[in-house]
Design a protein that fits this description.
The protein is α+β, with helices and mostly antiparallel strands. It has four helices and twelve strands; from the N terminus they run βαββαββββααβββββ. The protein has helices at about 15-25, 80-95, 165-185, 190-200, and strands at about 5-15, 35-40, 55-65, 100, 105-110, 110-120, 130-135, 205-210, 215-225, 230-235, 240, 245-250. The strands form two sheets. It has a seven-stranded mixed sheet with strand order 1-2-3-7-6-5-4. A five-stranded antiparallel sheet has the order 11-10-9-8-12. The structure holds biotin. Biotin binds near residues 105, 116 and 134.
């Protein structure tokens, strides 16, 4: 079924991810989508809220299942594939180049334009699924952004994108997400990881601050390994692959 062929549209919803999860648990199929004009409890990563004012952004979630009822392919790469899809859709519709900050952030001119919230339920096994939620700031002006985010967030409008609509962006996103999901489904992890790396907001060699459950440390960013995991090197040491990173930032 093409992505977005079945869309549950809402004027207002708590969170499209929560709606999509409920639909998936009730048996909704691969590619089913939820799209809302407004979210009252939009969720970001790490338990943060996602500000979702009516009509000013794209707030959507897709249900992803594996081919023939099997496991979702390369489930750990879904956020990266979704970031690529969002960045393609933005270029197609608004004509803006975006950068991707591993693993969930979509940036434009150094500010956050959107994010991905990917949540799996038994996704590594047959019958499981992933809900991939995508939030993009579209028509927000500076006053529409929460004061504490004004210095670090942007929208297509604020970034000077070509005039576009949430609907046009939505139509493009359905196509681009389907395309990147199919890349994963045919096992071409290299295309996802390589393209993500080529759009990275953080150049290789940049000093970064990493937060893990074990604490915070500084290192040099070395890129991604073939599985899309973060590779860094601590001063004077060789590259290491990190498994459970809570936060990645440029070191100031
Ligand atoms: C992030 O913190 O960067 C991820 C933000 C993800 C927001 C989107 S909006 C649609 C979907 N529904 C939610 O509640 N969150 C995601």
């Amino acid at each position: 079924m093409p992505f977005g062929a079945i869309v549950h549209r809402f004027e207002t919803v708590a969170s499209t991810n929560d709606e999509a999860r409920a639909l998936a648990l009730a048996g909704a199929g691969h590619g089913t989508a939820v799209l809302a004009r407004e979210q009252t409890l939009g969720r970001g990563t790490k338990g943060r809220a996602w500000h979702s004012p009516a009509g000013l952004g794209l707030y959507a979630s897709f249900i992803l299942r594996g081919p023939e009822g099997g496991a979702v392919p390369s489930v750990h790469l879904v956020p990266l594939a979704a970031g690529l899809a969002a960045s393609d859709a933005i270029l197609e519709t608004a004509g803006l180049e975006t950068r991707l900050k591993w693993p969930n952030d979509i940036l434009c001119r150094g500010k956050k334009l959107g994010g991905i919230l990917s949540e799996g339920v038994g996704a590594g096994a047959a019958g499981g699924f992933v809900v991939v939620g995508i939030g993009l700031n579209v028509g927000a002006g500076a006053d529409d952004l929460p004061p504490d985010l004004r210095a670090t967030a942007t929208s297509l409008r604020l970034a000077g994108g070509r005039d576009t609509t949430v609907e046009a962006l939505w139509a493009a996103l359905c196509r681009t997400l389907e395309r990147w999901y199919n890349v994963l489904a045919r096992g071409d992890k290299e295309a996802v990881v390589g393209t993500f790396a080529s759009r990275s907001a953080i150049p290789v060699g940049t000093a970064v601050r990493i937060e893990t459950a074990g604490g915070v440390f500084e290192a040099d960013y070395r890129g991604l390994d073939p599985e899309g995991r973060l590779v860094v090197s601590r001063r004077g040491a060789g590259p290491v692959v990190l498994d459970a990173v809570l936060r990645l930032e440029r070191a100031s």
